[in-house]
Each structure stands twice: as C-alpha cells, then as structure tokens.
Design brief:
alpha+beta, Arc Repressor Mutant, subunit A, 5 helices, Metal_resp_DNA-bind_regulator
C-alpha cells in the first residue's frame, strides 16, 4: 500500500467527499501530506476498484466515500505493518547505534 493510499483510507475512517477528504488528509498527516484533486480521485478510483471503499452517496455534486469492511481490515493491517517497521528500527534511535551497526 502506498503512503497516499494509506492516508486516504485513514481519512475515510469517517465518510467524506473530495474537498473535505483533502482537508482530512492534511489533518491526519499533521499537514505533511497535501494531496491534489487529481491524485486523490485516482486513488479513490483504485481503492473502489479494489473493494476497499465504496461510494456511500452521490448527489450529482458530491460523491461521498466510505471504507468497506475489507478496507478497514486493510487499513488495520497496514497500521500493524508500519508499527512492526518502527519496532524493527528502535535500535537505530541513537546515531552511534546506527553507525556501529552499519559501518
């Protein structure tokens, strides 16, 4: 899963639509991720095709998306994977440990 896909799924923990979703991605990433509409809709299309999200509502003006059960499971699995990566890197928190191990 790409970083962008992860943040879209994370922001869709609460159903959202385009502009609101862009704001939510910025919020959950503490402003680190600023996603454009083209990128966002490309990811939404992919996630919908993969069954991770579904369109909850389409009033012609806005399309509201939400996580499917499968999408929530994928998000939780990715979260666990990222936590394991952080755990694996704990020994590198001190610069000296990093240089000692790899030099």
């Amino acid at each position: 899963m790409t970083e962008a896909m992860y943040y879209v799924l994370l922001a869709l923990y609460k159903p959202n639509y385009g502009y609101q979703l862009m704001q939510a991605i910025g919020d959950v990433s503490n402003g680190r991720i600023q996603m454009g509409l083209g990128t966002l809709y490309g990811i939404l299309t992919r996630l919908q095709k993969d069954g991770l999200i579904t369109m909850k509502h389409d009033d012609g003006r806005r399309k509201t998306y939400e996580l499917t059960e499968y999408g929530e499971l994928a998000l939780r699995n990715e979260y666990d994977r990222l936590q394991e990566m952080i755990h694996d890197g704990r020994g590198l928190t001190e610069k000296s440990a990093f240089y000692t191990q790899f030099n």
